[in-house]
């Protein structure tokens, strides 16, 4: 890697404030690299050189040679952009979007069937009706009644129930008593049911083939309801066709296979257990409610569209916000991070900011020069052309030689086409990893620094486990929460639980690289402009396979077909020697999986088959011709299962 590489900052540690039990924890810095002019010629080659060291951190910063000075291509005087409003105080410290009517229905059934009483009067606290649904979920967030009592967390629980209010010591004691009286027995019942569901899921996952057959043979329950003296099971008997198709699955729109159809105990809509996201292996005990009934639109959380700004008007808003938070208008990195995490954890009042995020550069323009763009008179023609063709220009990166994505010929925004970001103080990007587990490259054009946190891809499982245990109510309401990009968790909580976290401070002219399956998050120190895109060198291929399986598990629409990408790359005559070993292993994995599922279908009697239709451009990846599975929503490139009764509907082999 030569004398251009440095890891001088690897030993530095940053103190991150937390309102949790430990006051602060150290977050080590990620690696920083300074490539020489020669090393900087080929970004994919250079990233390959540093990967062995940098991937262990999940992130790294690259500081280009001093000669790298690309002109900013957008006209700041005429450029306008839309924003999103981010409620920073709700990124972590927010109640689950629970529907109080569904909770009341389930709680009433519990009282009637397990306690022998009715919910016939409202519960009041400090002169106002107490929302038992919010109280239950708030206590769940902090580990349940016993843990809340032990750690004296009733003040934090109260903040979730009634935000922006103070609570006295006496009122905390009263809240504790009310919870014990009305919800403690329900909490024990709820936890017992959840443990049984978890055990059932683990058993189902252990024996994949057996568990599938088990679902079809033994789960002849459409839904279960608890009766006063015994549990009653509704069985879907095989009757005439009209009755059999009486209930339609909301996902696949089929009324067949009623024996594995779950009915919501509130709205009576149905879903096959395998059509749920993620799918269930077993019919759950007790009452079951769909996500539509569990979640309340009123309390749902997301980033809502904000105003449209010019850069100058956005600058004024950003400056005012910074002076309001820090009177001098400037603060140290430690002060900014401490304040940000205080806000995120709900300890510093309500804070809303604007973020011009995910701006499609094919619509709004790129900060890098492009051949199709008008060259400003102030920029020399030779300089403009040089940076138009630079491999470090994010518009060129996905299509470089050695990039697997060069076979993709349709413009996927954020993947093949960069996204532009205009931030202000505390505007944030929440914990996530990239689509299809791609690499990402982010370039800081101008403005205040951007603070990044990263968890290495090898620790993704540990990260997810801590997220679920720290925010159980949010994950119960939204099992796919980490796909939503709207949730933060203080790095100190992750470090406390043994998950390694690293930090990088990105300044103007710096590149930041995130590695496959590396969870990352961060926020801005003030007004700035950055640009990002995905890329995929050869070593990404196995991670791409993992990402495709994850989309299938959660029934999320994929960006592209992983199988098609593999097959198209395999046909390339001038294949890079670095690609071949990764491609061979991934093709073998996909072939083995495809063969296994085809053989299982043959054994079950599906023996008629015809070739998939020929493609117009087989040498390129394009999804417009591919049907998608009506259940898992994945592109069907290698094979699809169809039936004469619904000729327009297809499913994958699974």
Automatic annotation (TrEMBL):
Domain JmjC: 386-552
Descriptive protein name: [Histone H3]-trimethyl-L-lysine(4) demethylase
Cellular component terms (Gene Ontology): chromatin; nucleus
Phylogenetic lineage: Eukaryota, Viridiplantae, Streptophyta, Embryophyta, Tracheophyta
Provenance organism: Citrus sinensis
Residue ranges constituting the ARID domain according to the UniProt record: 97-191
Pfam families reported for this sequence: ARID, JmjC, JmjN, PHD, zf-C5HC2
CDD domains membership: ARID (cd16100), PHD_RSF1 (cd15543)
One Gene Ontology term of the molecular function aspect: DNA binding
UniProt domain PHD-type: residue ranges: 246-296
Compartment(s): Nucleus
UniProt domain JmjN: residue ranges: 30-71
InterPro entries the record matches: ARID_dom (IPR001606), ARID_dom_sf (IPR036431), JmjC_dom (IPR003347), JmjN (IPR003349), Zinc_finger_PHD-type_CS (IPR019786), Znf_C5HC2 (IPR004198), Znf_FYVE_PHD (IPR011011), Znf_PHD (IPR001965)
Gene Ontology biological process terms in this record: chromatin remodeling; regulation of DNA-templated transcription; regulation of gene expression
Keywords: Metal-binding, Nucleus, Zinc, Zinc-finger
């Amino acid at each position: 890697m030569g004398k251009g590489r440095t890891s001088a900052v690897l030993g530095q540690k940053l103190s991150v404030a937390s309102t949790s039990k430990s006051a602060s924890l150290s977050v080590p810095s990620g690696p920083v690299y300074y490539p020489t002019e020669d090393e900087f010629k080929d970004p994919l080659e250079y990233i390959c050189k540093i990967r062995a060291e940098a991937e262990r951190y999940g992130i790294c910063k690259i500081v280009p040679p001093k000669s790298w000075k690309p002109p900013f291509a957008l006209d700041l005087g005429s450029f306008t952009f839309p924003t999103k409003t981010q409620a920073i105080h709700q990124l972590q410290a927010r109640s689950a979007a629970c529907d109080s009517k569904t909770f009341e229905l389930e709680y009433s059934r519990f009282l009637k069937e397990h306690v022998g009483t009715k919910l016939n009067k409202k519960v009041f606290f400090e002169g106002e009706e107490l929302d038992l649904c919010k109280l239950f979920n708030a206590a769940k967030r902090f580990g349940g009644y016993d843990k809340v009592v032990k750690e004296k967390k009733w003040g934090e629980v109260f903040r979730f129930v009634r935000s922006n209010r103070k609570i006295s010591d006496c009122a905390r004691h009263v809240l504790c008593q009310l919870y014990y009286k009305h919800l403690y027995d329900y909490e024990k019942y709820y936890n017992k049911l959840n443990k049984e569901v978890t055990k059932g899921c683990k058993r189902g996952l252990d024996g994949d083939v057996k568990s599938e057959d088990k679902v079809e043979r033994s789960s002849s329950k459409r839904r279960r309801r608890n009766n006063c003296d015994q549990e009653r099971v509704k069985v879907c008997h095989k009757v005439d066709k009209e009755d059999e198709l009486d209930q339609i699955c909301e996902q696949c729109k089929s009324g067949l296979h009623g024996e594995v159809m779950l009915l919501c105990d509130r709205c009576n809509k149905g879903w096959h257990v395998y059509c749920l996201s993620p799918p269930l292996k077993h019919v759950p005990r007790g009452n079951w409610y769909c996500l539509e009934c569990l979640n309340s639109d009123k309390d749902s959380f997301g980033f809502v569209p904000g105003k449209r700004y010019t850069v100058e008007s956005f600058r004024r808003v950003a400056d005012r916000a910074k002076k309001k938070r820090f009177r001098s208008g400037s603060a140290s990195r430690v002060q900014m991070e401490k304040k940000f995490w205080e806000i995120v954890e709900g300890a510093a009042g309500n804070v809303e900011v604007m973020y011009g995020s995910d701006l499609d550069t094919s619509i709004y323009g790129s900060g890098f020069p492009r051949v199709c763009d008008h060259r400003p008179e102030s920029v020399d023609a030779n300089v403009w052309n040089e940076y138009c063709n630079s491999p470090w220009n994010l518009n060129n990166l996905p299509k470089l030689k050695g990039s697997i994505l060069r076979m993709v010929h349709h413009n996927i925004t954020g993947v093949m086409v960069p996204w532009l970001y205009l931030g202000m103080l505390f505007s944030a990007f929440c914990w996530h990893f990239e689509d299809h587990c791609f690499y990402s490259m982010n370039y800081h054009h101008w403005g205040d620094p951007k603070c990044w946190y990263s968890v290495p891809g090898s620790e993704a499982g540990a990260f997810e486990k801590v997220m679920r245990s720290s925010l159980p109510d949010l994950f119960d309401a939204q099992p796919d929460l980490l796909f939503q990009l709207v949730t933060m968790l203080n790095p100190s909580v992750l470090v406390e639980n043994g998950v390694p976290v690293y930090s990088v401070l990105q300044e103007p002219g710096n590149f930041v690289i995130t590695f496959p399956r590396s969870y990352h998050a961060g926020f801005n120190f003030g007004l700035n402009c950055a640009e990002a895109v995905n890329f995929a060198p050869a070593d990404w291929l196995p991670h791409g396979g993992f990402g495709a399986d994850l989309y299938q598990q959660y029934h999320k629409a994929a960006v592209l077909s992983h199988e098609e990408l593999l097959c198209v790359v395999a046909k390339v005559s001038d294949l890079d020697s670095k690609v071949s070993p990764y491609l061979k292993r991934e093709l073998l994995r996909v072939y083995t999986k495809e063969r296994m599922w085809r053989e299982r279908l043959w054994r079950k009697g599906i023996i008629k088959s015809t070739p998939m239709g020929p493609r117009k451009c087989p040498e390129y990846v394009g999804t417009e011709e591919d049907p998608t599975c009506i259940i898992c929503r994945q592109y069907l490139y290698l094979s699809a299962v169809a039936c004469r009764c619904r000729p327009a509907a297809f499913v994958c082999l699974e």
